[in-house]
Amino acid sequence: MSEARELPQRIVVAGDGPLGVLAAIALRKALPRTEVIVIAIPPDPAAFAERIGTALPFTNRLHDRLGIEEAALVRQAGASHRLVMRYFGGGGPGQAGAAGYGASIDPAMKTAFAREWGGGPRNAETGAPPRSLGEVLAAAGRFAPPSGEAEAPLAELDYALRWNVPAYRDLLIQIAQRLGVQHERAVITGVVPDGAGGIAALAMDSGAQIAADLYVDCSGSGAVLLDQLPEHRWLDGRGTFHARGLAIAALAGPMLALEDRATWTPLGWRWELAGRDGLQALLAVPGGASDEAIAAALGSEPAAIVPFAPGRLDAAWLGNVVGLGSSVAELEPLGGIAQDLAHRQLALLLELLPGRTVDPAERAEFNRRSALMADRAADWIAAHYAAPAPTARFPSLNLSPDLSRTLDQFIRRGRVPFAEETPMLVQEFGTLLQAIGVPQGEGPMAAAGEGSGEAAARAFEERARAALNAAPPYAEWMQRAVA
Amino acid sequence: MSERPAPTRVVVLGGGTAGWMSAAGLAKLLGPLVTVTLVESEDIGIVGVGEATLPHIRGFVERLGIDEAEFMRATHATYKLGIDFRDFGRIGDSYVHPFGTFGEEAAGVPFHHYWLELQRRGMAEDLGHYSLAVSAALASKFRPPTADGSLTSTYGYAYQFDATLFGPFLREHATKNRGVERIEGKVVEVRQDPESGDVTTLVLESGREIAGDLFVDCSGFRSLLLGSTLGERWEDWSPWLPCDRAAALPCAHISEDFAPVTSAIAMPAGWRWRIPLQHRMGNGYVFSSQFISEDEACAVISDAVDGELLAEPRVLRFRAGRRSKSWNRNVIAVGLSSGFLEPLESTSLYLSQMAITYLIELFPVGGQIDARDRDEFNRLVDMEYDRVRDFLILHFHATERDDSEFWNHVRTMQVPDTLAEKMTLWRETGRIEKYSDGLFYDASWIAVYLGQGVWPQRHDPRTRLPAPEQIARALARLREAMIEEVAAMPGHREFLTANVQRLAAAP
Ligand SMILES: Cc1cc2nc3c(=O)[nH]c(=O)nc-3n(C[C@H](O)[C@H](O)[C@H](O)COP(=O)(O)OP(=O)(O)OC[C@H]3O[C@@H](n4cnc5c(N)ncnc54)[C@H](O)[C@@H]3O)c2cc1C
User: Fold this and answer.
1) Which among B12, B46, B160 is the best mutation to test ligand 1's pocket, defined by most ligand atoms within 8 Å of the CB?
2) Which of A113, A353, A360 is closest, CB to CB, to B462?
3) Are B119 and A420 inside 8 Å of each other by CB?
4) Domain with CATH 3.30.70 in chain A
5) How many A from CA of A89 to the centre of ligand 1?
6) CA–CA gap between residue B154 and residue B156 (Å, rounded)
7) Ligand 1 contact via B57 beta carbon (within 6 Å)
8) Sign of the CA dihedral A222, A225, A230, A234?
9) What residues form DSSP beta bridges with A273?
10) B336: Cβ below 6 Å to ligand 1?
11) Cα separations (Å) of B487 from A415, B140, B143, B235?
12) B424 and A361 in contact by Cβ < 8 A?
């Protein structure tokens, strides 16, 4: 007969950045009888992921689940909505395209095909049109969040949020405090091993020790806990990514924009993050780039260049220590993918939440899925460098077998194969590849004229018109939202 | 749209269910890109015992543009909500593996953890009582699900039909509406290109030659093109799935009120099926010839069926396993020629359908085959087969039965590592290894584990948070809602008859 496992009595989260506080909120909500302590870590200059306030649509769902309301993010954390990422120059000078979010960015017929027929529920010929409701609304500068009604004109709209990092963190701290999460300011000076590959207690500079059942490492690339464990093994990703640092600059003051832009420069992708707190430029820079080249590509003198070592931990969960975010995987944050990955890992931890003691099979399942998540997120970034212009500039980067297959299938057949634990729907991956100028082949069904054609285009136009009617100008909506 | 190349000449060898599904599907979806010719031989005949299906078949029929009622009438189809398993974990045990879920998750914890917690305290009803599909099946009720996200959208359905009628029905459709050419004749020689080894021509007994660019091998267990001609390696799975024979025989219904389920009843040397069609009951004893002779098995099944016998038992022979690659050179095997997994979970027609779907997605437009597409096809087909295989092995391995040599063998055999890992995770934590591709997700694994007495040692700690009485009240409410829904559903027979378009004339 099955027994409920004992509840953990205490969980320690190392790191009080936004990810650490979010993890603490999630754990405390899931385990209201468990003491959750967040330990401050001296700010990690390399934790750029936490300086960038944006993620992908998955995070909106996670926030919802944790009771972090979008309305509060808009009012108190400077949140704004990104409907599309607009890419320039991936296919060469003058090439441009937009990539949005959600399943509906695919012509319905073609995904419905695979869904209805079974056999690879997510495999689909993408053949995505260069248009989606998100793109139409972004171009018109109009927006309102979907009402939640299934048939409403904006129902199929999906989006990512941007936010102001300090304000977001403050909001999370308020919520964490309300939930009874404790905050510890003393500094970790060492770990006491438990003899089983994990940690028995943390030694603090106050002289005290803090023992817990589970430790969550949200300390950023420093990985203050995981780094101390003997099984800790880093898989170097430098063969796959040329980036060795991230240059950051503030370009302009507050913006109200429904799109972000990413432009191919000779050094890498420059991403303009258009927040209500200002326009930032971010550029992944290769090793050895000169200061002048960086400034030219960034469009400004960098305010900081944060060193960066792409790769991931072989296993994100060792003993009773589980790592989230850049403590276990470092990747270019372009478009919010790094936070998205951290938040998916957090959701996975909630799914596989252990009892007082960690079960090895459960830890292995977490590590299997977390590694897949990290690898697929890395593929997403690597795909950006597989566009024609970047490939000409960096011809020698390795592609994972999964990404090679995806690119090959897309280029020859217009098809994006499904991959387990991928952060992107096949439709989203397909539109990304279109937007960055990867030439798209034609699938057999498109060639046969199946399910394409004018009826679909007309239906889309009608939906687009209805959506434009339903959405006010973004500034107007925002004014009402913050009033 | 790019310029359309000359149509690829597709030759389908075999007019069993797989052959006609392939011909109809390719002709419908690839239209102008292909010409489809199908060769079949009445002398050889078809297996024709694939009677129980999975919900995916509905999409297939729909996509061909076939009306559901017309199809049901033509194939004497009934509705199916799942499979009723008896005597698998222990003699006397039973459970339904539904096309549907159990309960709802709460606070991020899947339903079955709460159920385990109540069960431990003796406060839970049978797990199936919290599944609408199971509850309806046990009450012999049926109504199609809704799509509104409510309780009535928590299940799906499939059909049970007469497999000897499904092929001919598709043949009619494919030759009349889709321009498929049918050629009657027995293939006696297969010509290959001396350089590439590609199949070029099939030669019939009459001397007639049929040339093609792409050959879909639906020749059944013979695997004439992929197996015999190209010599594709066979991966033998019989150490894990020792059943290698079936004795099939139809009988009359003993009651008009049959449940919308397929039954699978464990037997001393295998198991037997009961599949209700509109006018008769399909039966068959799937057994291992290592443990019982054909004659004995025929005698056993003749005794076991409850209705009046409508024929003598017919014995079919097979092996569990699959060809190493289903697509080799210009030959793609679909159906029994690519592999066989016993019909315990009604997966064969699904596996054909899946292969056809992938073939369409990866079709060599213009006839030029790219090795990468072939590899991709084989990767996907292997993944599907392997996932089904592990799930089937579980049904035999997860048992306490020690009343026969057969059950002693399957209970004590070493299972594939991929299955052993899944079972360890379940036993230690009550969790299901997660994937989104392939068949059989959480609810299916939970149904079989708990239905066959594989209990986890521990379940989610969060089930300690609510008071047990609170969980019990939530489950009781759910149960009441289900009872109400089931009460409002028409009987299976009643629903079938409500639309006369669905009914075949009495034989
Ligand atoms: C006991 C049993 C129970 C089953 N139950 C189910 C079930 O419940 N659900 C399910 O989904 N599946 C079930 N199956 C599987 C299902 O029957 C098959 O998947 C399905 O019938 C497809 O068979 P096929 O078309 O591949 O082969 P076949 O039916 O064997 O057809 C082969 C065809 O090839 C032709 N052919 C062969 N050689 C030549 C030649 N030389 N020249 C010309 N033509 C030739 C034959 O004439 C015939 O038309 C079951 C199978 C068995 C054995």
Assistant:
1) B46
2) A353
3) no
4) 242-309
5) 54
6) 7
7) no
8) negative
9) A280
10) yes
11) 46, 11, 11, 48
12) yes
B314 lines ligand 1 (CB under 6 A): no
Query: CB–CB of A350 and B425 under 8 A?
Result: no
Contact between A355 and A8 under an 8 Å Cβ cutoff? The reply is yes
Q: Which long-range contacts (CB under 8 A, 24 or more apart) does B153-157 make?
A: B154/B100, B154/B101, B155/B81, B155/B98, B155/B99, B155/B100, B155/B101, B155/B131, B156/B55, B156/B99, B156/B100, B157/B55, B157/B58, B157/B79, B157/B80, B157/B81, B157/B99, B157/B260
Specify whether the CB–CB gap between A133 and A153 falls below 8 A: no
Q: Is B44 in the pocket of ligand 1 (CB under 6 A)?
A: yes
Q: Give residue A42's pLDDT band: very low, low, confident or very high (50, 70, 90).
A: confident
Specify whether the CB–CB gap between A28 and A181 falls below 8 A.
yes
Three-class DSSP labels, A233-264: CEEECCCCCCEEEEEEEEEECCCCCCEEEEEE
Count of helix runs (H) and strand runs (E) in chain A: 15, 24
pTM above 0.90, yes or no: yes
Give mean pLDDT, residues A49-68: 92
- pLDDT reading at A111 higher than 90: no
| Cross-strand partners of B37 | B11, B181
Model confidence at A49, in pLDDT bands (50, 70, 90)?
low
Residues of chain A with CATH 3.50.50.60: 10-78+164-235+310-380
Mean per-residue pLDDT for B137-161? 94
Task: In whole angstroms, give the CA distance from residue B9 to residue B284.
Answer: 39
Instruction: Say whether residue A444 is in contact with chain B using an 8 A CB cutoff.
Output: yes
- Tokens, residue B446: 């939970």
In sequence order, what are the beta bridge partners of A190? A203
Note the pLDDT of residue A114.
33
CB A367 within 8 A of CB A316: yes
How far is residue B80 from each of residues B155, B321, B416, measured CA to CA in Å? Answer: 11, 27, 30
B297, B247 contact by CB (below 8 A)? yes
Looking at the complex, report in whole angstroms how far the Cα of residue A37 sits from the nearest Cα belonging to chain B: 19
Q: Which helix (H) or strand (E) holds B266?
A: strand B262-267
Once rounded to an integer, what is the mean pLDDT over residues B302-315?
95
CA torsion sign for B312, B317, B320, B321 is negative
- Check if A127 contacts B (Cβ < 8 Å): no
Q: Identify whether the C-beta of residue A390 lies closer than 8 Å to the C-beta of residue A90.
A: yes
A322 beta partners: A216, A317
B8-78+161-235+323-386: CATH, from 3.50.50.60, 3.40.50.720, 3.30.360.10, 3.40.50.1980: 3.50.50.60
CATH architecture type of domain A10-78+164-235+310-380 = 3-Layer(bba) Sandwich (3.50)
Chain B residues near residue A122 by CB distance under 8 angstroms: 436-437
| A361 vs B353, B428, B434: nearest CB | B428
Selected from 3.90.1200, 3.30.70, 3.40.50, 3.40.1390, the CATH number assigned to the domain covering A242-309 reads 3.30.70
- CB nearest B63 (choices: A3, A117, A420): A117
The rounded distance, in Å, linking the Cα atoms of B230 and B9 is 20
Per-domain boundaries in chain B: 8-78+161-235+323-386
Share of chain A above pLDDT 90, in %: 76
Rg (CA), chain A: 23
- pLDDT confidence bin for A259, thresholds 50/70/90: very high
Local structure of residue A91 (DSSP, 8 states): T
Torsion of CA B200, B203, B209, B212, to 10 degrees: -30
CB B346 within 8 A of CB B440: no
Structure tokens at A458: 């007309």
